[in-house]
Amino acid sequence: MDFAVIIENLPLYFRGLWVTLQLVALSLVAGLALALPIALLATARNPLISFWPKAYIYFFRGTPLLVQMFMIYHGAGQFEWLRESVAWVVLKEAYWCALIAFALNSAGYTAEILRGAIEQTSFGEVEAAKAYGMSTRTLYRRIILPSAFRRALPAYGNEVIFMLHGSALAGVITIVDLFGAAKIVNSRHFVPFESFISAGVFYLALTFLIVWAFKLWEKRWHAYMRPREDTSKPKSGDAVTA
Amino acid sequence: MLDLHGYLPFILKGMVLTVEVALLSLGIAFVLGMIGAVAKLSSSKIAQTIAGVYTTLIRGIPDLVLMTVIFFGGQILVNDLGAQLAELSELWGWMTTDSDGDAVPLIGWDYVDVSPFIAGVLTIGFIFGAYMTETFRGGILAVSRGEIEAGHAYGMTPAQVFFRITFPAMMRHALPGFGNNWLVLAKTTALVSVIGLQDMVYNAGQAGGATREPFTFYLVVALLFLAITGLSDIGMRWLNRRYSVGVRRA
Questions:
Q1: Are A37 and A88 in contact (CB under 8 A)?
Q2: Which residue of A56, A57, A70, A206 is the best one to mutate when testing the B interface, meaning the one whose CB has the most B CBs within 10 A?
C-alpha cells in the first residue's frame, strides 16, 4: 500500500469532493422542489390526475439511475430538434446531464416519501382544520404539509444518503467528482486499492455527517414525540418553593 | 413503435446476463445476510463487532466505489497472493511437475484475470449481504421467544431450532424488507456494465452507438427493468402467501 501518492493528489480529491457536494446539494434542492407538486398531484382523488405523477414515480424508482443518466447524457443527442435548440447548450455538458438525471431521480423518490407522509395525516387534524373554516390552501400550508414534512424526515435522510452514493455515477461520464478523481489517480499511478479506498473514506465520512445531521434535526422536529419528563418531581435546578 | 433495427435479441441476451448476476448475487447476499444477522444477535462480542463494521462500512460507501475496489483491487490482491505463495513454495522446496514435466511450485498460481462477472456478482452479493443482515436481524427479533423456547424444550439441537422454527417464522417478518432489497439489487446490477460486463445496459450502449439511437435503446432497457420489477412483485406476493400460511387475517 502506497498512500504517499494519495497525499500528493489530495488537492484533486478535494476538488472532486467539492463537485460531489455541488451535485448532491443542487439535485436535492431541485428534486425537492419538483417532488412537492408531484406528491400533491399523486394524492389527488381523481385517478385521471393521479395517474401521471404515479407513473413518473414508478418509472424513476423502478429503473436504475445509471440508465436514467445515460438516457439523458448519451440519449439526448439522438434528437436533431434537441441538438439544434438552445437546450443543447446545457445538454452537451456532462455536468448538467448528470445534474438533471439526479434531480429527476431524486424528485421521484422524494415525491413517493412525501405522498406517503401526506396520506398518513390524521383525519382528526384535517377535520378540525375544516371545522375552523380553513380554506384548502391554508389547510395544506398550516396543517397537512408541516406534519407531513415532519413524518417524512427519517425517510428523507435515507434519500439524501442514497443521492450521495448515486452521485458517484457522475464519475462514469467524465465528471471529476470524488469517484472521478479516484479514477484519474488510478489511471495515472495504477494504485486501484489506494485511490478508490481513499474516495470511499471521503464518502464514508460524508455519510456519517449526514446521519448525524439528520439525528439532530429529528431530535428538534420530533421533540413533541419524546416521552415527557416527569414534572411532578422538582428538578435539581428548580427553586423549591413551599 | 420502437424500431430496434434487429437488435432486440442482442439486448435480451444482455438481459439474461443481468438476471444471472442478480440471482447469483441474491444467493450470496442471502447467505451473508443470515450469517451477519446471527452474528449480530450472538453473544460473542467479536462476532457482533465484525458484523457491525461490515454493515456500517458497506452502507456508508457507494456501491460503484466498492465494485471498482473489488474489481481492480481484487485483481492485484489475487495475483500478489498467487505470486507470493509460489515464492514461498519455491523457498521451501515444495515443487511438483506440470504436464510438460517442468518443475512448478506446489502452491500459488500464475497471473489470473479476475472476470468482471465474478467481481460483479461478489461485490453485489457482498453489498446486499449487509442490507440483508439488517432485514434478517429484524425478522429474527420478531419471532416469539416462546416458540424458540418450546423447540429447545422438545430437545431440538440449536441447528434444528434454527432451521425448523426460527427460520420459517422469521421469513414472514423479513419478507417485505427482503423484497425491497431484491428490487434495489436488481437495479444495482446495471453497474456491472461500468466494469465491462456485457449486461443489458452495456449492450444497449453498443446497439445505441451502432444505430445512433442511444435514447431508444436505453428506454427499452429501462422498460425491461420495469418488467423485472413487475414480475418480482408477483413473485413476492406468492412468497408472502406461502410464508403467511396459518396467520390470522382480518
A1: no
A2: A70
Rounded CA separation A203/A178 (Å): 8
Cell of B201: 445496459
From chain B, pick out residues whose CB is under 8 angstroms from the CB of A192: 68-69, 72-73, 75-76
Listed in sequence order, the residues at least 6 apart from A162 whose beta carbon sits closer than 8 Å to its beta carbon are A109
| Contact check, Cβ <8 Å, A78/B215 | yes
Write out chain A residues lying below 8 Å of B73, CB-based. Answer: 192-193, 196-197
Q: CA-CA distance, A11 to A6, in Å (whole number)?
A: 9
Q: Which of residues 168-207 of A touch B (CB under 8 A)?
A: 168-169, 171-172, 179, 182-183, 186, 192-193, 196-197, 199-200, 203-204, 207
Does residue A193 carry a pLDDT above 50? Answer: yes
d(CA A27, CA A22): 8
pLDDT, position A242: 45
| Residue pLDDT, tens place only, A56-101 | 999 999 999 999 999 999 998 888 888 888 888 888 889 999 999 9
Q: What is the ipTM of this complex?
A: 0.86
d(CA A197, CA A208): 16
Full 3-state SS string of chain A: CCCHHHHHCHHHHHHHHHHHHHHHHHHHHHHHHHHHHHHHHHCCCCHHHHHHHHHHHHHHHHCCHHHHHHHHHCCHHHCHHHHCCCCHHHHCCHHHHHHHHHHHHHHHHHHHHHHHHHHCCCHHHHHHHHHCCCCHHHHHHHHHHHHHHHHHHHHHHHHHHHHHHHHHHHHHHCCCCHHHHHHHHHHHHCCHHHHHHHHHHHHHHHHHHHHHHHHHHHHHHCHHHCCCCCCCCCCCCCCCCC
Contact B199, B190 (CB under 8 A): yes
